[in-house]
Write a structure and sequence with these properties.
- By secondary structure, the chain is an all-alpha fold.
- Helix 5 packs antiparallel against helix 6 and helix 9 packs antiparallel against helix 10.
- The protein is globular.
Length: about 325
C-alpha cells in the first residue's frame, strides 16, 4: 500500500518535471486545486469544444484496451496529480479521472499490435520493430508525466493493463479476424454490441468527455469493421500483391508523394463525412427529443450524445474502409 501511495504521489511527478526543466512559477494568483465537482463545472464548456482529441486506434485489441481503460477511470475515480506541486500543461482533461493512463495504454496497444501483426505480412527485422515499439510506448508514457496529466501509478497501470489484454487476446486474433471478415452476422454483432457498450457506459455525477470519447473510438471501430466485411464480400480487400510476408517497400520520392496525396485526400473525405453526419444526426435527435437548437448543452445528454457520436464515427469508419480506397484508385494514388 505504501508503494502504491508513493507511485501516486503528485510530488513524484513534480520531481520528474523539474528534472526535465519544467518548474511551477509561484504567483500570488496561484490557488490550490478545488474539489473535483467545482473544477468540473468550471471547465465543461471548454472541454466540450475539445472532446475529440484522443487516439483513434486500429484493431479489436486496441479498442478493447481503450474501452477498459476509460471505464476503469470512471469506476475507480482516482484523481489526477494536483497543482501545485505539478505543472499542468493540459487543462482540458482535468474533469476526467486519472487511473489508468489511456494514452499509455493506447501507445502500448498500438505499438505492439502493429509489431505482432506485421510479422506475418511484412518482412522486417523483429529486433528493430521491437525497439521502435518500446521507444514509442515509453515516450508517450513519459509525456503524460511531463505534461502533469498522470501519476507514475497511472502510467504503470496503463502499460500493465494493455500488456495483459494483448497477451490474453493474442491467441485469438486470427479467429476474430476470420469472424469479422467472413461471418454473415459480423456487421450486426459489432454494430449492436459496440453501441450497447457505449450506452451502458458508467454514469457520473458530473459531465465528462470520457463517454463521448469512448463512443467515438467504438463507433469508428464498428464502421471500419463493417466496411472490411463489405470489402471481403466484394472481393476487394486491397491486399498487397505477392506471397506474404512481402518485402518492406522502399521509401522513394514517388511513394512519399503518393502517401502525402492519400493523406490529404483522405483527410478531406473524412472531415466532410464527419461534419455532414454530425450535423444531420444532431438535427434529427434535437427534433426527436424536441430540444431547442440553441441549447448547446443538450448534446451532453446520453440519449443525444451517444447516438449522434456513434452514427458520426461509424460513418467515418465506413467511408474510410470502403470509399476512400476506391477514390485513391480512381485518382491514381494507389
Amino acid at each position: 500500500m505504501e508503494l502504491l501511495t508513493y507511485l501516486h504521489d503528485s510530488e513524484l511527478v513534480a520531481r520528474f518535471q523539474r528534472r526535465c526543466g519544467l518548474f511551477l512559477v509561484e504567483s500570488a494568483h496561484l490557488k490550490p486545486e478545488r474539489p473535483r465537482g467545482q473544477l468540473v463545472r468550471d471547465r465543461l464548456d471548454h472541454q466540450d469544444r475539445n472532446s475529440n482529441y484522443k487516439y483513434k486506434e486500429n484493431g479489436y485489441a486496441s479498442r478493447l484496451v481503450m474501452y477498459v481503460g476509460q471505464v476503469m477511470k470512471d469506476v475507480l475515480k482516482l484523481p489526477r496529480p494536483f497543482s501545485p506541486p505539478v505543472v499542468k500543461l493540459e487543462t482540458r482533461v482535468d474533469a476526467e479521472y486519472g487511473l489508468p493512463s489511456t494514452h499509455a495504454m493506447a501507445a502500448t496497444a498500438i505499438s505492439f499490435t502493429l509489431l505482432l501483426s506485421a510479422t506475418s505480412r511484412i518482412q522486417f527485422q523483429f529486433g528493430v520493430g521491437l525497439t521502435i515499439a518500446v521507444t514509442l510506448a515509453t515516450l508517450v508514457s513519459l509525456s503524460r508525466l511531463y505534461t502533469g496529466m498522470h501519476s507514475v501509478l497511472d502510467v504503470i497501470c496503463g502499460i500493465l493493463i494493455s500488456a495483459v489484454l494483448l497477451g490474453g487476446t493474442y491467441p485469438y486474433w486470427e479467429t476474430m479476424d476470420h469472424f469479422q471478415l467472413n461471418n454473415p452476422i459480423s456487421p450486426i454483432v459489432v454494430l449492436v454490441l459496440f453501441y450497447f457498450l457505449c450506452y451502458i457506459y458508467p454514469e457520473l455525477d458530473h459531465y465528462s468527455t470520457t463517454r463521448g470519447d469512448t463512443t467515438t473510438i467504438l463507433g469508428t471501430c464498428a464502421g471500419a469493421s463493417a466496411g472490411y466485411w463489405v470489402n471481403q464480400q466484394l472481393g476487394q480487400t486491397f491486399e498487397p500483391e505477392g506471397m506474404l510476408p512481402v518485402p518492406l517497400p522502399t521509401l522513394t520520392a514517388s511513394a512519399l508523394a503518393l502517401g502525402t496525396g492519400r493523406f490529404l485526400v483522405g483527410a478531406v473525405i473524412l472531415l466532410a463525412t464527419r461534419q455532414i453526419v454530425k450535423t444531420v444526426s444532431l438535427h434529427m435527435l434535437y427534433s426527436w427529443y424536441k430540444v431547442p437548437k440553441s441549447d448547446n448543452n443538450a448534446r451532453r445528454r446520453k440519449e443525444i450524445e451517444v447516438p449522434s457520436k456513434f452514427a458520426t464515427y461509424t460513418s467515418v469508419g465506413l467511408v474510410n474502409s470502403i470509399l476512400a480506397n476506391r477514390i485513391f484508385l480512381f485518382l491514381g494514388l494507389l
